[in-house]
Amino acid sequence: MDPSVAIALGLLLCMSCLLLILPWRKGFGRGKLPPGPVPLPIVGNILQVDLKNIPQSLRKLEKQYGPVFTLQLGVERVVVLYGYKAVKEALIDHGDKFADRGPIPLLKLVTNAVGIIASNGETWKQMRRFSLMTLRNFGMGKRSIEERVQEVAKNLMEELKKTKGLPCDPTFILGCAPCNVICSIIFQKCFEYKDQKFLYLMKLLNENIKILSSPWMRVYNSFPSLVRYLPGSHHKAVKNMQSILEFILEEVKEHQRTLDPSNPRDFIDCFLMKMEQEKQQPQSEFTIEHLVRTVSDLFSAGTETTSTTLRYGLLLLLKHPEIEGKLHEEIDRVIGRDRSPCMEDRNKMPYTNAVIHEIQRYIDLIPNNVPHAVSEDVQFRQYLIPKGTTVIPALSSVLYDDEEFPHPDQFDPGHFLDESGNFKKSNYFMPFSAGKRMCVGESLARMELFLFFTSILQNFTLKSPIDPEDIDTTPIASVTGHLPRSYELCFLPS
């Protein structure tokens, strides 16, 4: 190599390292950013974080640096909030300032940062407001949301009966139910379990949840401008997301052809009517692109989180048959066998309610939350967090707080019961996050979990092909969420 070229490359490398290190030294020296481990050039603190168990790494760092600390993950600087007080102070007490969405490179690549999950500013405000209003006031058509969920639950029971009590992997069946609920709300249709289009959609969703949960995605998110040009599973995830968007666009076009403004059928119809109302406004956020991306967010998030919680919950009940037995007793006493469960039953079933809450707490589905960002320079405690800084509110640290939940590593419904056996609420229950970015579909998800769990246990007794003591309930190592290990169970008719 020519000596002058070698010298130039060396200088370039040194300058790159200085550009990465100097901002950090400046931040630490002036005491503006929260403390944290000194980052290495280029990779930052990635080598100091176990990508297969990020919550455990954050727990260790919190003991060293306190409840608010800073990490450099590749090119991205993040502030971690650890513990209930820090998370509540940011997301609730200063909710407006912490309400921006942090960068999600893969979603930005596919969605162009529109929709609900990845958007910010006026786009996010209007899409979220409209979605909440439509989901809450879903008086369209002939049935309420609860009646739709009950109908899907009945179809789920019929599919489970077809297993004839033989061992089966419940992943696909339990994924179809919440998917059909969200499809009925968005598209006004429920798919047959053998429908080829439905099977294809479920395949795309299942593939993506595995890809997005892999350690490779942390590497991609840390170096998106570089890794996007390298081979890897992220290309498959992008292709799958684009296929889902194409399916949604076809549905939107069909809705445009058949829209009756006097009788809106579903979410898409309502959005199309809103588009018509604002067609004279050149800056309107209600466009076809925003509709497709918003529906995609509702469709994907509304399917995967609920189905994973159901699947993980049944695994925990297999591990703890004594808890399942108490659930059967309460269901028989309150609901019986002659009618379907309804939401009015929940207030009369404190133990069932506590078990479902404990399932959500224990599985800690999205331990590090979806990344937030500050919308302006924020004075937070004794620190100054610059505008645009990514913030990770560690939900694990709240759901596993040992003062609020004694023995948090144990699956214990007693965490949500008082001494008299009544259901006990907790401010630390944050599986849906908190504040301005709280999950749009929280009320729907709560309804689904109650009606699906009670319907299953009303009709079936769960049996594991292996001894309960041998069941492993620890999650699969994952970057974005906690997934249960593959398992089989038998649904024995009650």
From TrEMBL:
Gene Ontology CC terms: endoplasmic reticulum membrane
Gene3D superfamilies listed in its UniProt record: Cytochrome P450 (1.10.630.10)
Purpose of the protein: Cytochromes P450 are a group of heme-thiolate monooxygenases.
GO biological process: organic acid metabolic process; xenobiotic metabolic process
Family: Belongs to the cytochrome P450 family.
PROSITE patterns: CYTOCHROME_P450
Record: residues binding heme: C439
Pfam families: p450 (PF00067)
Protein name: Cytochrome P450
Reaction(s) the record says it catalyses: an organic molecule + reduced [NADPH--hemoprotein reductase] + O2 = an alcohol + oxidized [NADPH--hemoprotein reductase] + H2O + H(+)
Cofactor(s) the protein needs: heme
Domain of life: Eukaryota
Keyword Transmembrane: yes
Entry-linked SUPFAM superfamilies: Cytochrome P450 (SSF48264)
Keywords tagged on the record: Endoplasmic reticulum, Heme, Iron, Membrane, Metal-binding, Microsome, Monooxygenase, Oxidoreductase, Transmembrane, Transmembrane helix
Localization: Endoplasmic reticulum membrane; Microsome membrane
Keyword Magnesium: no
Enzyme Commission (EC) number: 1.14.14.1
Transmembrane residue ranges: 6-24
